[in-house]
TrEMBL record:
Primary enzyme class: lyase
GO MF, one annotated term: poly(beta-D-mannuronate) lyase activity
Signal peptide annotation: 1-23
Top-level taxon in the UniProt lineage: Bacteria
Keyword Protein biosynthesis: no
The EC number(s) this enzyme carries: 4.2.2.3
Name listed for the protein in its UniProt record: Alginate lyase
UniProt organism field: Salipiger mucosus DSM 16094
A GO cellular-component term linked to this record: periplasmic space
Alphabetical keyword list: Lyase, Signal
Amino acid sequence: MKRTFCLNAALGLAALTAGPVLAQSDEAGSHQGDVTCIDVPEPVVSLSYGSRYTDESEDRSDIDQDANAAVNEALGPIDDFIVDLTARANEAASGGEEAGQAASCVVEALAVWAEADALSEMETMNANISSPSRIGALALAYIRAKQMGEIDRERAELIETWLSARAHHAMDYFDAEAPPKASRNNLRAWAGLAATAVGRTADDEVLTSWRAHTLALVACQADEDGALPLEMDRGPRALHYQLHAVGPLVVSAGLLEQDGYPAFGICDDAVPRIVDFTTRAVEAPELAEEKAGEPQTYQKGEDEVQAFELAWADAYLSFFEDAELARLVEPFRPLGNSKLGGDQSLLW
């Protein structure tokens, strides 16, 4: 039986017991009890960095360690903020006496970044194509907080206007300026998830339409086995990037299904085929090796599959019975990914 994603419905009992979200600026540091409000970092307004990969790497699989460190340093404060924000959003979603306070923490933290117009100056191509996954994560946390009760109207307008502007920028960039492969690969899928989350919270029909187009654009490239050709072009990291693509594709498809769009059935069940190939390839990386033409990092002991890379499974399993996938992810539970909304057991 299909379960409902919490972003699609109010949290019922939790909202009743916690009361309305308190969105006054002096609330951010005044919470008592088990909830710890977020130590909001300085808003990151501009991002400017290059690629993680060496200039000579034609398949974008050879990491330049210095460049990689520079990218991580630039994105670190944002990703740390997202982790903290998502943890508070999860506390809100779990209900209980502290749920309303946790929701207020999320709202107040986001208001700080919205007031600063954070992430509004993307100065390089790589900043533009990697920021949408962060925008989506921020929006998912906000929706969870918003469900807890009434938010101060000015606060809500401030945050939603900011998120909408960031998502529209990503949409325009991927349609007009992104490199040909990036405009159709896993990065586009993450931009689609951002459009999904922001489109819902801001009631933005343009973003809502674009998310469906983006899902089809990426998922319909899958071959008959479910491999995504642009990810298979990544040499020894092909399976890594297949995993990176399947998360936003599955979650976006699930949300679209709830909105009445037959997302899982498009292009001869493209998303289920992608899930099937990914599940089999995680257990047998030689399947990806055959597509990519060389052994995968997982085969060479350079990488291990992490729980966050499989967090999308809960969304998929809420729509389909898939014994093989359920067996694969069981040792990795609990499944969570801050860019997919955190603890997936609270979502699906």
